[in-house]
Amino acid sequence: MRTRTLAGAIAGALVLVACSPSVDIADVPELPVATSPEIEAVLAASEEPVVLNVWASWCIPCRSEGPLLSRAAREFEDQVRFVGVNVRDTQDGARRFIAEFFPDTPIEHWFDGAGNVPVDLGGSRAVPLTFFYAPGGELVELHTGVLDERTLALQIDELLARGP
């Protein structure tokens, strides 16, 4: 058992290294630090529905949903507000992830080093985690785990069907 655990840890570390190419972060500013009251204020003030995704640069499943969220943010830019909250990470790790997966994408990103915001919003410390809010900040749905295209499309359709 001990050999398998060590082998698994080594394989996991190799995957992280392989999935973390050197990316130029010079054009990615530091993320504003998020507090729960600030994020709650953003949600309450939003006139559009909000898709709030909680992610981390070290999260392998977050890497698989990054391109999906990027496409959706571009497609629904005028109808839905996309917010990303990076948790339990470093600013450089977050900036690298944004440069790799969200270049020129209309997603507002925040930094929550302690990872308290998702818990305070009613979620967990797990990543990825996606909250779907109606305009004004009413929570419509909470999705734990990796988003797939179908789930994201259905949830966005639900938000848009509610109207402003």
Question: Can you walk me through this structure?
Answer:
There is one protein chain. By secondary structure, this protein is an alpha/beta fold. It has one domain: 3-Layer(aba) Sandwich (Glutaredoxin). 44% of the residues lie in helices and 18% in strands. It contains six helices and five strands, in the order H-H-E-H-E-H-E-H-E-E-H. Strands 3-2-1-4-5 form a five-stranded mixed beta sheet, with helices on one face. Helix 3 links the parallel strand 1 and strand 2. The N terminus is likely disordered.
Provide a concise account of the structure shown:
The chain is of the alpha/beta class and 164 residues long. The chain has a single domain (2-162), classed as 3-Layer(aba) Sandwich (Glutaredoxin), CATH 3.40.30.
What structural class do helix, strand and pairing data support? alpha/beta
Radius of gyration: 16 Å
Averaged pLDDT = 89
Number of domains: 1
Query: How much helix is in the residues?
Result: 40-55%
* Major sheet details: 5 strands, mixed
Shape: globular
Report the sheet-strand fraction.
15-25%
CATH fold-level name: Glutaredoxin
The largest sheet has its strands arranged as 3-2-1-4-5
Measure the end-to-end span: 55 Å
| Architecture per CATH nomenclature, i.e. the level-2 architecture | 3-Layer(aba) Sandwich
Count of DSSP H/I helices: 6
Please write the string of helix (H) and strand (E) elements.
HHEHEHEHEEH
CATH class: Alpha Beta
CATH homology superfamily name: Glutaredoxin
Low-pLDDT sequence parts = 1-20
Count every beta strand, where a strand is a DSSP E run of 2 or more residues.
Answer: 5
